[in-house]
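B., you asked whether I could sanity-check this one before it goes into the benchmark set. Here's the sequence:
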Amino acid sequence: MRVRQSRAVAAVPVLVLAAVAAASLTATAAVFLAGGPGNGPRTAQATPARPAESAPPAGRPDAEALLAAARGIPLLDRLRGIERRPPVDDPQAFVDRLVAEGADVVTLGVMNGQGRVFFPTDEAPVHPRTDPSYLPTVLRLLHERGLKVLSWVVFNVQDVRRAEQYALAERYPEWRMAFLEVPPPANRPHVGMCVVSSPYIEQHAKVLRQAAAMDIDGFFFDGFYLGGAPHPLAPGCVCEFCRERFKKDTGLDLPAKADWTDRTFKRWVRWRNDRLLAVARYFQAEMRKVNPHVTCTFNCNTWPFGSKDWETAVPAWRIRDFGVSQHGYDMRPERKWLLPGFKARLGRDMNPGHTDLWRACGYVHTCGKGEPDPLWHELEIETFILTGLAHGITPWHSTIEGPVDVSFRIHADVATRERHFSRRHVANVAVLYSQNTHDFYGHIPAASNLADYRDGLLGTWMILSEHHVPFEFVFDNQVEEAVPAKYGTLVLPNAAALSDRACDRLAAWVRAGGHLVLTADAGRFDEWGDPAPMRRGFPGQDSPNEGGQDGEAVGKGRVTYLEADPGLAYCRSRNAAAPEWLLAAVRTRPLPMVVEAPPTLVVNLFEAPSPASPAAASPPTSATEAASGPRQWWVHLLNVSHLMPDGDSGFRGLEQPPVAKPQTGDPATGRRLGWPLVPARNVRVRLTGARVTRARLAVAGTDLPVAADGTVTVPEVRLHDVLVLTAGDEVTK
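And here's what the prediction gave me:
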């Protein structure tokens, strides 16, 4: 669900446009001191001096050159996207501002969250201020300048604060969603449309096909959930259409209430997940009937953040056939790195070929409700975009509040790095991110399982990321097919609820040579959260080897069982021993990269895409496939010390109070918020399965020596750089 970014057109004030001459911009690119709709009040401010911590390289291009540099970059690989909906400026002014900001993609809106559309149609309520010529004119001008265009559309309901605001529910009352239960206050009406089983699905598809027939490159679906607004969501749907469909699909009657001891209720929870994805695929297929090349991305914004739970019906599964979007920001200081870092890893792994990361960019979102700090505002937003780049996930954002030159500077810096965007992440360690465990083990009554499981996953991410272990998340539906051959080690951090099929696949993978690391209750429950002690057949569970020893041999592989969950211990208490329990286990197999660097330096290894294997392509599935590809690797180095003072942001769990970390700013730059950006020095990187012959820092533009053992020492990383390694032999997969 998206933070509300735009008012209805009728409520949008006329934007104050101020054309200001600026040496860094072309004469035709006006500087607009007012931001786009939806980011709060705007105040014209002097452009602050650029902090030394993110000083740009010499020779920065102007706005037109920056836009020209994007030509030829596929839509899904463009990193300078801005959400600005609905477009209410004069069409030429709307386009000129985007060019002035250095954008190469814009997300506008052909409809709003209340169900009103901005184009003529008989299939949906048309907004009373709709000008039939406006959208075609804007789309033509955007494409003439070389910008790609996405449109925001609503899947169910969004941006509704009162039930009576929802025009679609008034037009089609017979297809409104019915709710299993309504959150307090109970007298607050909720509203949504049944996109689960009712004929509204086909009706909405008609509107979407009409939108897809416009000259639009892709669509972003917000309101992607099976709940009624306003928040908190009321879970649905239990209408008569759903009653009939559920009976047909399962042979069961709909549940009467949320009851985690009732198998019928659990079946309904999982049925909703399946139906949500099925309808998403249907909408995409219908839109591609009129526009075969259109992309469709759905705002999954998956748990554990933002009070996300089972009510949304959005599952954390591997999704291959449509785009996945996540939110990657938080206003709380202790979560400033946690959200973008964790969500970038999660989102990329849910769909490596088509995934993005979004954030809001008002002053309140970066600086809180006090006096804005323009230097921190700029640094936090640039760090967010670089986080996407460093994880192989496409970043985009709302209008950046403040002078337009701030947006331009950020995007110009990103443009110097965007040719090193790759989705071909290299890792041979996997971590199971289990929806079954979250839902059915996590909600066992009178237990703390849900909070423990969520914090344990976060802690596992912290341990592996801070110790520079290349890893990826895998998911229940992925493991039930087969554990991908690229992984030598698979960690199940308290992944308690496993299906028989998953257990069979895991056992076969271990016997073939895999190393399975189980912690806490991993594998002790079936996929519905019912106890199934020792039925898994994984040796080692009855003789735990606390401390991460080699484990027990099983066929050609091994199983290691850790009685405690190291991730939970590290997340909650920063137990210094906890990382070693896990690291000792995962390091029994060679890793593709060995790094010596502070925990505040994010280090991710990618294969450089070749012309025949573009960045958006899926990662190689085997060493044989990879061997036929390029002999170059990109190591992204992202310094987040300004978000993690002394390597610890103070986060201690989603339901635990943080350890207070007063923001000191950075006296050297005059920045008041955040913490100092401490350069990472003498960073050592070595590929373990490749003979590196050349090393170069792409952004700094300097060659680096390669030691006899292949180690490359990077003298200093301030905010971000890319270590380009050329090798003669294949890296270990």
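One thing to flag: The first helix runs from residue 63 to 70. Otherwise nothing jumped out at me.
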